[in-house]
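step: validate -> pass
step: tokenize input -> pass
step: predict -> running
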Amino acid sequence: MTAHNGFDVRRRRCREIEALARYLGAADTDDFDRFLVAWLHARPAPGDRVFAVQNAAIRMGGRINDAKARALVEEARTTPRPEKPDGWATALCLTYKQRQALGITTIGAIDVRQHQREELRKQRRRQAEERRRRARGAKPQSRSLSRTKPWKAAGMSRASWYRQRRSKPQGPSTAQEIGTVFVAFANPQPYRRSLPPPVTLRQIPRQPSRSPSARTSPHTRRSTDQHRYRAWFHPPETS
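step: predict -> pass
step: emit ->
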């Protein structure tokens, strides 16, 4: 059962069963067979199940021989496979505390049912969102004006208290900042770039030719053009 994003719930469940067996030390108890049978039920591909369950036993912290592995494969084939997360939790005797400690998501819990886990998940999400709001500087609802009702302590009506609050002058720093921002946006200054004064063609010195034949020489014309180009971008300094 692979999702569109590549997540395989069966492989994830196998890894969670192995993590639970290592966490509980099931390899040294009589419940080791129960974990291996549950792992065979959760195994995604058929393949060589005897070799696969032996490797799973090693990852759980124990070892089994070939005869034991074949017996477990036959037991997994004849026993019903759990269908729901709570059924997997019943087969593994997984509690909610162990589930949270190992970060298990594909198996339920024997002491907390699915609808209770959903309510706890929503509660944790609300608490995390509240912590994020507090970190951003938000105030709790219990400290809002509608809850504290400061107009009752002042002995006036709500409308009068708000009217008096609006009539109070603002601080000079806040008003000054607001006025500065307003003026900056109302009167934007254009960006002006300081450019050098333009150079006319009369200011560009011409290179005199040494002979009449040099006037028609391509090399001389190219040198003259380069000289004019340099003079255009680097005008001579005038005192």
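step: describe -> The mean pLDDT is 78.
step: cleanup -> pass
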